[in-house]
Amino acid sequence: MLNTVPEVDKSPRGIAKEPSKVGGSARRRFIRALKPEDKEPIHQLLIETGVFSKQEIEIALELVDIALTKPQQRDYIIFSYVEEGEVLGYYCVGPTPATQSTFDLYWIAVKPSAQARGIGRELNMHAENLVRRKQGRLVIAETSSQPRYEKTRTFYLKHGYSELSRIRDYYKIGDDVVVYGKYLT
Fold this sequence. Notes:
By secondary structure, the chain is α+β, with helices and mostly antiparallel strands. The chain has helices at 39-48, 54-69, 119-133, 150-158; strands spanning 20-22, 25-27, 29-33, 77-83, 86-95, 102-110, 138-144, 162-172, 175-183.
């Protein structure tokens, strides 16, 4: 985990640049705006989680492609967590269409070998701070009710999200959508 809340550039993308010390040894870790070289490591970490379907991974990569090929767009804002040059996690957030100050947390994922080290927490905090800087007040995250998503649901609850709704059989019979939300104000 990063030792302090990272300093943020004055740029509109809010790029964090804070090295930290871990276990007494200096390690270069930071959260930064998505770069083209992040796409393949993000693809691999999504596969390695063993949670996401092929279709879900394709959707995640489609959002990565949009963010990379259309830098002027503001629908999908993606940041990567990098340690010693390796992408260990990422998130994708964006304003919810037709709302005032609501944002969707579309994706947040950490490489399995780097889980339980606070990286997800750091990514979530960074996303929430970004939303606040953009005058956002509510973050929405949707996930599946399937057992393989239990850690995801626990993550949201642990980080102050509340279950706002559940729609039965949303994705398919026996697979509900569970909607979590967190008010930032």
